[in-house]
Design brief:
The complex is a heterodimer. Chain A is mainly β. Chain A is built from no helices and eleven strands. In chain A, the strands form two sheets. In chain A, strands 2, 4, 5, 9, 10 and 11 form a six-stranded mixed β-sheet that branches. Chain A has a five-stranded antiparallel β-sheet with strand order 1-3-8-7-6, with no helix packed on it. Chain A is globular, with a radius of gyration of 13 Å. The N and C termini of chain A lie far apart (40 Å). Chain B has no helices and eleven strands. In chain B, strands 2, 4, 5, 6, 9, 10 and 11 form a seven-stranded mixed β-sheet that branches. In chain B, strands 1-3-8-7 form a four-stranded antiparallel β-sheet, with no helix packed on it. Chain B starts with a strand and ends with a strand. Classes of the chains: A mainly beta, B mainly beta. The interface between A and B is medium-sized, with 23 and 25 residues.
Amino acid sequence: QKEVEQNSGPLSVPEGAIASLNCTYSDRGSQSFFWYRQYSGKSPELIMSIYSNGDKEDGRFTAQLNKASQYVSLLIRDSQPSDSATYLCAVNQRGSQGNLIFGKGTKLSVKP
Amino acid sequence: DAGVTQSPTHLIKTRGQQVTLRCSPKSGHDTVSWYQQALGQGPQFIFQYYEEEERQRGNFPDRFSGHQFPNYSSELNVNALLLGDSALYLCASSKWDLTDTQYFGPGTRLTVL
């Protein structure tokens, strides 16, 4: 059973701080990694994708991937109260194109 | 550019009934995937449609079936509803050659009483 693990939180950070969200996955053959943001009562919104080891930056968001450690993370710089949401990590399955495996999500709370 | 649309927004059914949920993908997308998200959980993959055929299927019983139409829109059908089928049903659209990059619609909240 392929798994994606996330700390459920809640993770609480003050406004302006860096929020660090982590995710581990079990399938060594996974090649595509995604972060989704989900506000309460809403559907997931794709915010980052990463495919190669290293860092990928997009505005205040940085995704980090380490395939050897089977670890992917999301950093949110200058956190804002509007970033308060549940962040879902999703990983593809080797040989199963389009079937994304999601973690349960980490709930982030940014305090003003 | 229209995003992914789903209907209805909410639905209440009783055990044993059947339900049909609908999805239209983003403009330019040809692939539709369906997910079930129970409260407090991440989405779980049900199945994926491309060229009007089911291409991938997750660990869901045959009570869950689907269809894709020539205009790429899709339906999810669930028969013999159980209380445990209560969840948010999400449609995700993508291009077949980038099928892992999926964009979700607003979802349909199904409540089974």
